[in-house]
Amino acid sequence: MKILTHKQELCNGCLDCEVACSQTYYKTSDRNYSAIRIIENNKTYRARKCTQCGECINMCTAHAIYRDHNGVVRIDKKKCVGCLGCVGFCSELVMFYADDQEVPFKCIACNVCSKACPTGALEILISQVKER
Amino acid sequence: MIRLNTEDYPWKSGMTVRSLLDEKVFTFRHIIVRVNGEYVPEEEYETQLIQDGDDVIVLHLMAGG
Amino acid sequence: MGAILKEYRYTPAKIVRGYSGKSLYINVSDLRIEEKTITEFMKEKFTGGKGFDLWYLWNAVIPETRWDSPENEIVMSVGPLGGITQYSGTGKTLVASISPLTDIPIDSNAGGYFGPLLKFSGWDAFELQGKAEKEIIIFIDGNNGLIEIKEAEEYPEDSHVLAEQLTREYADDENDMVNVSVVCTGSAAKHGFMGMLNFSFYDPRRQTVRFKQAARGGLGTILCDKKIKALVVKYKGVTPNLNNAADLATINKVGVKYHKEMHDLDSKQNKMRQIGTANTVMIMSQYDLLPTRNFQTGGDPEVVKIAPEVFINEWLTQGLHDGCWYGCTMSCAKCADHFLLTSGPYAGERVTVDGPEYECVAGLGANLGIFDPQAILEENFYCDTYGIDLISFATCTAFIMECRQRGQITQEQMGGLDLRFGNKDAVLELLHLMSRGEGFGRLAGLGIRKLKKIFVEEFGADADLLEDIGMEVKGLEYAEYAHKESLAQQGGFALATKGPQHDEAWLIFMDMVNKQIPTFEDKANALYYFPMFRTWFGLVGLCKLPWNDIVPADNHKTSEPAKVPEHVQNYVDIYNAVTGEDIDKDELILQSERVYQFQRVFSVRMGKGERKDDYAPYRSLGPVSREEYLSRQDLYDKQLSELQGLDPEVIDLDEKIAKLRAYREDQYEQLMDAVYRRRGWTMNGIPTPERLREIGMDLPMLLEVVEPKL
């Protein structure tokens, strides 16, 4: 399946990825609208983003989350009723919502952030990991 | 003798929170234990000794049904 | 299928801050359809949901109205918070009518999609009055503003077949089926007084129609009597903010916090996501609270056979979303898929059984002496599809079985049916007889109050004994908790306005185990606060379970953990965020009390609702029989000596039973006094004009009822 990966040792914490993501989907530089969040801890940087594990698929109360043909977990925004149950149930805390948005959002391994990354820390991989 | 939920209850030497719960068949999982007003976390039920004269509260948290 | 009798076009009202502002009235006698306006007065005094139901019902009936009078109404309403998706348990429909079991207003609530879709179709409330000539189906199309009434005689009766057929008929295609919800009952509803209403929702993962029930008090019987076979609503396009909430951001924030709590804590707390309400069956038995063999005892060693683990491991499908409305992450509506039926008209078919819930395992299991999970699921299925309230059925059948055990009726008088504790085949046969309206099935659905009379007058049974062991108050059968050792809960049941249902108060642990409410005043305070608080769920369209079937991790640090203060604040915040109002937790109680007192006065108006109607059968208060006394002899002997200063060694068993009884009956009288005072009632149980004035309910129509009773 397609998955966004992050190499901690290459990341300089510039947050270009967050801006690229929120600009692309919500036309804003506000990081609260980014589906990737870089977390700093003692000058090292960790990325919070979807692992495409699919735990949210079965718990979705509107049957609106599915895995596409690339193995990417996606939200059908027409079916989503905005209950945000998936936000509370994501063990990785990578299903996001914003105050003025009715439906949640997540990383769909689209490549926008990895293209924006100046250090090559972000990369889309085709993973052979068994899907849950 | 100890106080258990405001009533007298016989004390035994070596009594722990766990042994008291077992003796009373307090099997409900959702409880709060306080010994002499001090909250006892579940991890300490086995080790927390109850002394003669202690005031034990075992609150069952269910007002549901 | 079925000729169209009436078509009515309307413009669906837009919902603003939780209210559409319109209600729908249909008179099925002359097929008259009217739109009414929800007034500011209604919102101020009654809030919504059950409040609106009772207001419309009051205006429809007179004191002489009975369940089958044409002017009796079935009213339903979802409440201003109903239909929001961001918090758990937000799709409850509240239903009210004059009950065939009690002759006073009954209120009952159900999950399922009907209420929210009805509101999204433009209707805050829905009144059904009159009696149709022939069986009809009423269809509401909320997208196109169309109401259609058509003939229904060719349609099947039983819910699982009828709702599936109607859902397919009214959905455009498979994807559209989630947008259709059906209310219907079943073949047994017309052969007794305990018919219930099924509220459907379509489960796209299982590809089947599922149900939640507004079960209590005979609502299905009334639907049948009105010759309404089904109500169908269709609304396509459920989106996150159809209620047009004043402040969606707050609802989102509170909702996410709650979902996270459910994710982190449910598996450590009640396991609602794995087993639902039946999680407490073993616990209840261990604390002597599981009604067994008509409430004679509070548990049994055999209960392990119907323990939660058995259902989780062997019967209930795990890991799928099981909410009965969008956004409910408590997801407690479990079901047994591919269940093979072994009896009745559907024997050999594989079906999805919705449940079992706690009341089902306790009632159809332990209380009938049946410790067999498969039998319980089959009873559950047939109660549901036949439209039978399984609580009334279980408690009533347990009563019949004990009458048999004590030689009060014979097998011959039951038409040869071998109804004794533990006989699952006879219970299933009884259900099939009720469905067909044959033999003893015609009697068994009448309910305990009417059966007591019949058994005494026709079969020569002992009237006093039957009064003691027949577990009903006001004509309604008890819900499934043994509670002899909790005085507060004796009141929680018998002082409940509509009859002994535990949705007003469940105080057993606080009272009997925790000893938190030792005095009459403490118990009365609890019997004030909890019924008022819990009434509120029914005003706004919420389910009670998410309030306290999970609690925040630090709930134990609060001053009143039983009230779950953080969740109460969640409700206040959500209410304000939807409606744009600014209430606090005290105002919330005031909203409830207005409706609570109104309903009590309504009962008074209908001829019940006084002290005489609030007495409990002695089985509720203490040991009736020698075996019961002996089963807990140490406990009862101790009470005789400690509380009454008697020496149990020198008194014989019958005298001990009598002494204990005198003591407990006196305690109950004192409890009534204390509760009446706390609720602002006279010692005869009548709400005083002063109290009504304090809460802004001194309406002339209420004063007219209470003043002659002072």
How does the SSE layout of this entry go?
The complex is a heterotrimer of chains A (132), B (65) and C (710).
Chain A: E1 2-6, H1 16-26, E2 37-41, E3 44-48, H2 55-59, E4 65-67, E5 73-75, H3 85-89, H4 112-116, E6 122-126
Antiparallel strand pairs in A: 1-6, 2-3, 4-5
Chain B: E1 2-4, E2 7-9, H1 17-23, E3 31-35, E4 38-40, E5 55-60
Parallel strand pairs in B: 1-5
Antiparallel strand pairs in B: 1-2, 3-4, 3-5
Chain C: E1 4-9, E2 22-27, E3 32-37, H1 40-46, H2 50-60, E4 73-77, E5 93-98, E6 105-110, H3 114-120, E7 125-129, E8 136-141, E9 146-151, H4 159-170, E10 180-184, E11 197-203, E12 208-214, H5 219-225, E13 228-234, H6 248-265, H7 272-275, H8 281-286, H9 308-315, E14 335-340, E15 350-354, H10 358-365, H11 373-386, H12 390-405, H13 424-436, H14 441-444, H15 448-459, H16 463-469, E16 472-473, E17 476-477, H17 487-494, H18 508-513, H19 520-540, H20 545-548, H21 565-579, H22 585-605, H23 618-621, H24 626-631, H25 633-644, H26 653-679, H27 689-694, H28 700-706
Parallel strand pairs in C: 2-7, 8-13
Antiparallel strand pairs in C: 1-9, 2-3, 4-5, 4-7, 5-6, 8-9, 10-11, 10-13, 11-12, 14-15, 16-17
Helix pairs in contact in C: 1-2, 2-22, 6-21, 10-11, 10-12, 11-13, 17-19, 17-26, 19-22, 19-26, 25-26
Q: What is the CATH topology of chain A?
A: Alpha-Beta Plaits
Strands of the largest sheet of chain B, in order across it? 2-1-5-3-4
The number of distinct structural domains of chain B comes to 1
The tally of domains of chain A stands at 1
* Global geometry of chain A: globular
Number of strands of chain B: 5
CATH uppermost class of chain B: Alpha Beta
Strand content of chain B: 25-35%
The largest chain-to-chain contact, stated as pair and per-chain residue counts, equals: B-C, 20 and 33 residues
Radius of gyration of chain A, in angstroms, nearest whole number: 14 Å
Note the main sheet of chain B. Answer: 5 strands, mixed
Percentage of residues in helical conformation of chain B = 10-25%
Continuous helix count of chain A: 4
Query: What would you call the shape of chain B?
Result: globular
Percent of residues in helices of chain A comes to 10-25%
- The CA-CA distance between the termini of chain A, in Å, is 11 Å
Low-confidence stretches of chain B: none
Distance between the terminal alpha carbons of chain B, to the nearest Å?
A: 33 Å
Oligomer: heterotrimer
